Structure formats: C-alpha cells, structure tokens
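To illustrate the input format used throughout this study, we show a single complete record. The first block contains the structure-token representation of the backbone; no residue identities are included at this stage. The design step must infer an amino acid for every position from geometry alone.
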C-alpha cells in the first residue's frame, strides 16, 4: 500500500527534506502497525504529517511532543527565527497554532496526539511502548541527551529510533544529535539500519 501525502506538504515550514520524510514514513508504516510512533520536536508539523500519514493507514497514532516555544536557534535574533511564529503580545515563540492548522489541512487529526510540553515533562510518567521514536528536538547537548534518555528506553525490541541532523563533520552542523547516535550504538542496544541524508535509523535488538 502506498502512503499518500498531502500536496501542500512541501510548503509546511520545517527542516526535513522530502526523501528524509518519506523514509521516516516508511519506517513508521512498517513498525507502527500495532504500536504508536512518537516524535520530539514537531515545530509546525512537517514530520508529524509524514508520520501520521503512515500511522493513519493502520489506525495507529503519533504522539507529537513539543513545547512549541522554539529551540535555541528559533529565538529572536537567531539564524532560524521566523517572525510569523512570534507572539508579540507575550514575547514568546508559538508554533502550536500553525501546527494545528497544518494537521487540519492534512486531514490527519485522527492520527495525531499533540503533547504540548517539554520532553522531560511528557516522559515523566510515560509507560506506552513505542514502535518508533523520532528525536528532532533542541540541538544543545543537554536537550539531545534529555530526549535520548527520556524516549529511547521506550522503543520496543525490533523498533526504530530515528535521529535527525546527523553531521559527522562538525563544520557542517552541531554535534549533539550525532553524539546521541554514537551513544546509542555504543550501548550495544541498537544497530544501524539506514541513513538518509542527515536522518539516521537504528533498530533496537
């Protein structure tokens, strides 16, 4: 069965390339037939739509964890700041309204459970096994380590841990995501499955 994506998906704000998104959806389609997916770092919902399009086909869901206040690089004065997502009344970033509009437009609301919270708060009492966990949250070392420690343990045997923005060359990008990738491999609990551009997939033993 082919996974269908909405035509406007390329226009959704986000940093996931289409071939990365398609690979992510294919992994979710394979591993989330009976278990949910979870992503950390939804932003405006581009990756969420890829995941939800796959989960929807099985009647499964993706839990979309994001505080929607933006990562370090999204704040005013930073490289990836988007004024359209800035709430001047409260002087904070707010990507949640854009996220919800995109879920409605993509017709995937029945396959998406938004969790508007920091990763460590959402994980505090989490007990649901995951067929796939996708880490694409804050790229500071602390944020990446927090996301890894919060969610990797919930990936079932045979399930997938996906990590975005892997840059082996530190001149090309921040090293926090590839640090947790290497940490997962060094743990002996995961093995590499594939890397598509900067998106890597690991399978839990």
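Output of the design step:
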């Amino acid at each position: 069965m082919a996974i269908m994506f909405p035509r406007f998906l390329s226009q959704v704000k986000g940093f996931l390339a289409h071939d990365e998104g398609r690979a992510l959806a294919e992994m979710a389609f394979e591993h989330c037939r009976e278990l949910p997916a979870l992503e950390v770092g939804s932003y405006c919902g581009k990756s969420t739509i890829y995941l939800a399009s796959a989960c929807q086909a099985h009647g499964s869901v993706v839990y979309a964890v994001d505080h929607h206040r933006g990562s370090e690089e999204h704040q005013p004065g930073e490289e990836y700041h988007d004024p359209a997502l800035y709430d001047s009344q409260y002087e904070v970033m707010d990507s949640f309204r854009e996220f919800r509009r995109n879920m409605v437009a993509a017709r995937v609301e029945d396959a998406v459970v938004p969790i508007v919270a920091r990763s460590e708060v959402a994980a505090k009492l989490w007990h649901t096994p995951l067929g796939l966990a996708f880490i694409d949250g804050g790229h500071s070392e602390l944020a990446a380590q927090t996301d890894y420690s919060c969610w990797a343990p919930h990936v079932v045997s045979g399930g997938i841990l996906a990590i975005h923005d892997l840059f082996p060359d530190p001149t090309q990008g921040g090293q926090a995501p590839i640090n947790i990738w290497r940490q997962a491999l060094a743990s002996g609990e995961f093995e590499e499955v594939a890397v598509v551009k900067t998106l890597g997939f690991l399978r839990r033993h």
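Structural context for interpreting the output: The chain has six helices and nine strands. The two ends are 27 Å apart (CA to CA).
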